[in-house]
Design goal:
eight-stranded mixed β-sheet, 8 strands
Length: about 150
């Protein structure tokens, strides 16, 4: 380790055959699990998205790869599940926006993939909205295909 790596605490990187280069974000001494960040092509939107993957220092598990593919395969159902919560939040904010064309109005930006040890898997999806002139982000907590919580970021 050179001096600059010591000063700037160079983050651990792991090469994944599926997710590409993943960079550790929170590994601490004596801790076995934390988070890796990476970017990957997402078939439903045909764009690159960000991923946050909870895993051990060695990298992702086969369950997480399978779960990512499951999210891609079930993306239309996920969009249907999150729509009422997003519209409800807009109603609460008094703007009453309705989602007419999901792919044009909301773009997935990030997925959080947990260890996938429980069923249904609890995970997060972050959308950027184009429903108004301001840039807003909606983070939805999912249990399987069911949207169970929502938060808004600006």
């Amino acid at each position: 380790m050179d001096f600059l790596d010591f000063i700037f605490k160079k983050r651990q990187k792991v090469k994944s055959d599926f997710f590409g280069t993943m960079t550790a974000t929170k590994f601490k001494k004596g801790q076995n699990t934390s988070y890796f960040e990476c970017r990957r092509y997402f078939k439903p939107t045909q764009k690159i998205i960000e991923l946050v993957i909870e895993c051990e220092k060695s990298g992702e598990t086969e369950k997480q790869i399978t779960f990512f593919k499951w999210i891609e395969d079930n993306y239309p159902e996920i969009c249907k599940s999150v729509t009422p919560l997003i519209e409800c939040l807009y109603e609460y904010l008094k703007s009453g926006k309705k989602i007419v064309d999901f792919p044009k109005e909301l773009e997935v930006r990030q997925l959080f993939l947990p260890q996938c040890d429980s069923v249904p898997v609890e995970w997060d999806i972050l959308f950027e909205t184009r429903l108004d002139s301001q840039k807003h982000y909606f983070r939805l907590v999912m249990k399987g295909l069911e949207a169970v919580g929502i938060g808004m970021e600006s």
